[in-house]
Amino acid sequence: MPKITIKDVGRENQIFRNRAIVSVGIITVMFLIIIARLVVLQVLEHDHFKTLSHENRVKVVPIAPTRGLIFSRDGQVLAENRPSFNLEVVPERVRDIDDTVQRLLAHVEISEDEIKRFKRSLKRKRRFENVTLKYNLSEEEVSRFSVNRHWFSGVDIVAHANRYYPFASDTAHVIGYVARINERELQSLDATNYSATSHMGKSGIEKNYEEILHGTVGYQQVEINAQGRVLRVLERTPPIPGDNLHLSLDMGLQETAIEALGQNRGSVVAIEPATGEVLALVSTPGFDPNLFVNGISSRMYSALRDSTDRPLFNRALQGQYPPGSTIKPLLGMVALERGFRAPEDSTWCPGFFQLAGREHKYRCWKKHGHGHVDLEEAIMQSCDVYFYALAQDMGIDAMYSSLSAFSLGKRTGIDLPGERSGLMPSRQWKRKARSLPWYPGETLITGIGQGFTLSTPLQLASATATMSMQGRFFQPHLLKYSVDATQQTRDVPAKISGKLMYKGKQENWQQVTQAMVNVVHSPTGTARKAGEGASYQFAGKTGTAQVFTIKQDEDPKKRKDVAEYLRDHALFIAFAPAQEPTIAIAILVENGGSGSAAAAPIARRLFDYYLLDKSQENSDQGS
Amino acid sequence: MPLLLGLLVVCSLGLFVLYSASGENMDVIYRQLVRIGVGFAVMLAVAQIPPHKLARWSPWMYGLGVLLLIAVLLVGDIGKGAQRWLDLGVFRFQPSEMMKLAVPMVVAAYLHDRPLPPDMFRIGVCAVLIVVPVVLTARQPDLGTSLLMASAGVFVLFVAGISWRFISISGLLAIGATPLLWLNMHDYQRRRVLTMLDPEQDPLGSGYHIIQSKIAVGSGGLYGKGWLNGTQSHLEFLPERSTDFIFAVFSEEFGLIGVLLLMLLYSFILLRGLYIATEAQGTFGRLLAAGLILTFFIYIFVNMGMVIGQLPVVGVPLPLISYGGTSLVTLMAGFGILMSVHTHRRLLSH
Question: How many CA atoms lie within 13 Å of A133's alpha carbon, on the beta-carbon side?
């Protein structure tokens, strides 16, 4: 084809005319295709569709699956479904909605909030979809409305299953709760599978295992008459209920821990070291998850949110505290392994430590000093000076790399949402986060678990379990197994099980364990009271986490008011029995003061329950 | 003017269908009336702009539109699982609607002062001009609108006279690229295609639309059940019955006879539009008019095909009849351009 360089108007017109004619032809053919299809549907198959539409007015209605139940390891029901009765309105069948609501007030108590919420969801839903006016009618309301039902076309009582948590606040931070699905969540859900579902897991186990708890939607084809009333069910595909979950949580231990914490704000995490199964996970104070299921009133919610005790805050997973002296056994182990110290090497503790050429005194908690201490005594009496000196010798880099091996500063990966990672500081971290170099003094205080170091109670419990297993890490997890609708049991193994995170010599582990045993069983150990008269041996370590110190020039009156909140946090880690441990725990008591007085006795109570009372109970039942 | 008359007839017919589809809701009718009013006002306003001015504005409109599409992808509001809207505070704006006009305009403006039929290089430039906004819109994801945008651009090229050999080769290539398209589709888009092939497979989910709309159409028969007597639509079997699936209500109540009549009305508008295009004098006006009117046909074909289960469900309304403001205003603006092409030709020639 010759290359055209000038516009040839005549030719262009000709081409265009041709194309227009072709277009008309194509349009005609395509319209004919549609007409042919219409003839098939409307003439040839008309009778078939007429039957479908006229005689069988079939409507497909989704049926929500039953949500799986949640059990504890000792067979308690932690989450169940209870029937509840809701008042629901089909907007299209109600002539005057405002008038109907007004008349309903005579029979059923409906608050302003509920009416507002109803009006909001009215706008969102289609005219033929049920809109709930009031959840959880009392029996009296159900019967009062039923008698007067004929006055209210388009209004009906519908039975639903309501999630209920029998242990309420005691399991709130583990199980979490379900609540109504909001619009944002609706976008990310499988629309078909959730077409009949109103609630979903919002936190805790309920959220983490939403997928297996929910189940699969069923549906039924129903025949309805000209007014839309259901005449009969034609075909039913039943929904498949969600799996029941069996958790490793020991409710007896959980309740004992809550009781032992009493009015304190704090947290207890107990783990079975050989499996990583979480036996107890407590954060006090708790809150009643049942309040959230059908929507908590904004007043109640702000009361919970604004409480200075922070009941909504999951301290076990999200509370980040300096680990304090509880990291001393780990540092001691690393010192032995790397040859920074031999067991018999001793340090002179005059009650303080000074960096060469500096004035500042880094103080030991014991004002007049411990005298000569070796590693065992240093752990047993929690001598700070020994660990200042050790930290100085090791340096921050060696401390960072070896403590990271015990998963400090990393999420444990527990099967609960919202876990925080804590912080194991390093030179790089400080340069990046603070744009400052690392100072030698910071190495010292890192050696006693203060300064930048942060860990969650869960991390401490997990590190303790790893220590008790001589460096083997079993990822903490709550789900033991699930049982589906056909009674098939499915084990849910943890992702990491028995991975050797820190390789150490047998005798060094023994050395450190012995020192921890002495903490509670030696007459000079810091937690000797907790170990008094125990019929089994356990290993422990006290700790104190410093709370931000108040400025000297602050208003003294204010200081008095907040005094309790400025006290140190008490910490205790322990495992028992000391040889072949079956339980490892971490205890935190916020503003509890010293670890030995506030936290260690709680450990004793839990061990007594878990190792003595419980086996007692079992043998009682057996006889 | 015959075109105006045709539009008025179809719009009024639409109001009757909408009244039935909305469950005899006068509020809906009033709202739609306002939209039709706005649509006609926009159309008459656009009709006053001479084509050469439109041609000059085209690149700017196009550039602005592409920028807005990118903005929507970055910050847009999420409506029905897709990001289409840009919240401008006072009102929400859907840039992809504007691009339905801007794409054919910019392609026509580009070809306007260049020799036709276009050579390979110019076809390539046009292809890029079309593909960029189409891909951006498909990413939102809004398959329906991107399809309409693409057809508008491609039709302009088609009437500009690209060779049949080229058309058939790219057609073959397109078929070859289908698997690639499949891989890039969203899950819900794939599901729609699968559902169209076998709606019974998913009677509760995506198949529901098609099953119910086929029942509606089929049970309408030759003569239909009569206005306001459709059962499928009135017993709420049919989802989206005032918007994308309004054709099902129409076929149920007016039957095959009614549908043929509607097609006749549409054909009148189509033929009139093509006539305006052939009579146009400037290349820009001629190409643009033809591109727009052929896109109007694509609306009709895709919507009807989807309702009777021949094409997958993509969000394309039945033009001038479906409930909804944005696409109506765009359509009317398009007809405004057609009118402008027509009236300004007269002014020039006489």
Answer: 22
Closest CA to A340 of A376, A389, A385: A389
- The size of the A-B interface in CB pairs under 8 A is 143
Number of H helices, E strands in chain B: 13, 3
CA B224 to each of CA B216, B252, B253: distance values in angstroms, whole numbers, following the listed order? 10, 5, 5
Q: Are strands A244-247 and A70-71 parallel, antiparallel or unpaired?
A: parallel
Chain segment A44-91, per-residue pLDDT in tens: 888 888 877 765 566 778 888 999 999 999 889 999 998 888 888 888
Bridge partners (DSSP) of residue A473 are A499
Task: Tell me the C-alpha distance between A216 and A236, whole Å.
Answer: 14
Element containing residue A474 per DSSP (H, E) = strand A472-474
CA A211 – CA B143 distance, rounded (Å): 30
In this complex, do A19 and B161 lie within 8 Å of one another by their Cβ atoms? yes
Catalytic annotation on A325?
A: yes
Q: What's the residue count for chain B?
A: 350
**Could you give the CA distance from residue A463 to residue A585 in angstroms, rounded to a whole number?**
10
**How far apart are the C-alpha atoms of A178 and A296, rounded to whole Å?**
12
Closest residue on chain A to B235 (Cα) = A228
pLDDT digits (tens, 9 = 90+) for B16-30: 999 888 877 788 888
Q: Which contiguous run of DSSP H or E holds residue A100?
A: helix A97-104
CA distance B159 to chain A (A): 5
What are the tens digits of pLDDT across the range B140-194? 777 888 889 999 999 999 988 888 888 888 888 888 877 877 777 777 777 767 7
- For A23, the closest of B203, B263, B294 (CB atoms) is B294
Cα A592 to its chain centre, rounded Å, is 25
Q: State chain A's maximal CA–CA distance in angstroms.
A: 113
Mean pLDDT over residues A128-138, rounded?
A: 81
C-alpha closest to that of B100 among B330, B318, B266, B326: B330
CB-based contact B157:B107 (threshold 8 Å): yes
CA distance A323 to A570: 10
